[in-house]
Specification:
With 442 residues, the protein is α/β, with parallel strands linked by helices. It contains 14 helices and 19 strands. Helix 7 runs parallel beside helix 8, helix 8 crosses helix 11 and helix 10 packs across helix 11.
Length: 442
């Protein structure tokens, strides 16, 4: 789908340009040295755009200093300020970054006031040549829209279109839009609906696509590829971020694979495909386990999400440590099939985990906590568990979760059942025990 071009620093998003790969810092922004060093690592790994959280006015000078230091080192990757709630912070940071990511509906509880504050931000961004990403997430829509349309993909698209219309009315065309969800089915449907609405309007802004809170390891990569590839294969999506609860540098190779694959610069290692009704049998000869995992996720994610297929069986080989490994005999084929079915929301063989990647707002060892939660809950079935870095994103963005483990800061955790906190201020040394007691006591 042809979109408008948006300039983000020296990078062009949309307009038929290659899909841009980005990532986000998980350092504390006011630690300028740590944030700068992580940005250097990201740029060296191939990040084309880097996002940094700006929790409040105090961090505005810090992100400006990070950007200035990067430029002095010859690193020109555009810097995006990630803002939650505060239009004042967004307005203050807009002159010193290349793009601002905001959800305008969070600017004020009064919707009319939120519109006024967004209009002011548009004026400032236009004055300074700063792009905007309107970033709405499932579960963070606000009552204004959910009372009309529920917490649905349609509501996500309708909410985004209100802000899109404001950009059009203000003649502000340096706009990118995203509608992320941890549920791949919700995420894909929301983006498809938004694309249709923008096409009908006659103004199509570039879309930033990603599966939010995808988790880590194989599951996070598969889930991200299933959702993102479903859209890229339809020509929807101009920039991607793969959200992993890991070192953010690890996100970049997966994002680069997706950009290269849908830019025609790499191809699948699948050599044969057989169909038996709604069951596929796929043979691969892959140069690595990772390549097979990514190829299979993109080859079959969309078909499973759209229910064109009900099952996939994997055969063939992949190389590991220079040796050829049988996909079937190693058990990797059956494991990959289970993981794909879960990522596509077709069959759950283990708990479904939602975990944010962490950012400068995270005040505890998110990665360590997530690994411990997974280890201690792996025996459970038919349960969705969220591990979230902070109270800002946690309650809203874990919309699909049955249980939530949300960092409060100061080594304390809140535990949620659905959207309701059932325990607060739990020491992080006890929080996993309390979570398990609650789950197993139900």
């Amino acid at each position: 789908m042809k979109t408008l071009e948006v300039k983000c620093g020296n990078v062009t998003i949309g307009g038929g340009h290659p899909v841009v790969v980005q990532t986000m810092c998980n350092t504390h922004t006011d630690d300028v040295e740590a944030t700068f060093r992580q940005c250097v690592r990201m740029a060296e790994a191939g990040a084309e755009i880097i996002r940094i959280t700006v929790p409040g006015p105090r961090e505005v000078p810090a992100i400006a200093e990070v950007r200035e230091r990067l430029r002095s080192e010859g690193i020109d990757a555009p810097i995006v300020a990630d803002i939650h709630f505060s239009s004042a912070t967004a307005i203050a940071v807009a002159p010193v970054v290349d793009k601002v990511r905001i959800n305008p509906g969070n600017f004020h509880r009064d919707h009319g006031q939120a519109r006024q504050e967004f209009a002011r931000l548009l004026e400032v961004c236009k004055e300074h040549g700063t792009a905007i990403r309107i970033g709405l997430n499932h579960g963070s829509l606000g009552t204004y829209i959910t009372e009309k349309y529920g917490n649905t993909p349609f509501a996500m698209a309708k909410a985004a279109m209100e802000w899109v219309e404001m950009c059009i009315d203000a003649d502000f065309m340096q706009t990118v839009v995203s509608l992320k969800a941890s549920n791949t089915s919700v995420m894909v449907e929301a983006y498809r609906l938004l694309a249709g609405m923008m096409q009908e309007r006659g103004v199509v802004f570039p879309m930033h696509v990603g599966v939010t809170e995808a988790g880590n390891g194989d599951s996070g990569r598969i889930k991200s590829c299933v959702g993102i590839s479903s859209l890229l294969s339809e020509g929807l999506g101009d920039t991607v971020r793969v959200s992993l609860t890991e070192d953010p540098v690890n996100e970049i190779p997966v994002g680069r694979y997706l950009s290269d694959r849908y830019g025609g610069r790499t191809a699948s290692s699948m050599v044969r495909l057989g169909l038996n009704g709604r069951t596929a049998v796929a043979e691969y000869h892959a140069p690595s386990r990772e390549k097979l995992l990514l190829d299979a996720s993109c080859d079959f994610g969309k078909r499973l999400l759209d229910k064109e297929l009900d099952e996939v069986t994997f055969t063939g080989t992949f190389l590991q440590d220079g040796k050829e490994v049988s996909v079937e005999e190693s058990g990797f084929g059956a494991y990959l099939s289970d993981e794909l079915m879960q990522a596509a929301r077709r069959r759950f063989y283990k708990p479904e985990y939602i975990a944010c990647p962490g950012c400068g707002r995270t005040m505890y060892d998110l990665q360590g906590a997530f690994e411990e939660v997974k280890r201690r809950t792996s025996h459970l079935h038919d349960v969705v568990i969220a591990v979230m870095g902070c109270i800002v994103n946690g309650p809203g963005e874990m919309a699909d979760a049955d249980w939530g483990y949300v960092g409060e800061g100061n080594h304390k955790v809140s535990i949620y059942h659905g959207k309701e906190p059932v325990l607060r201020h739990v020491p992080d040394t006890e929080a996993v025990d309390r979570l398990l007691e609650l789950i197993e006591g139900r």
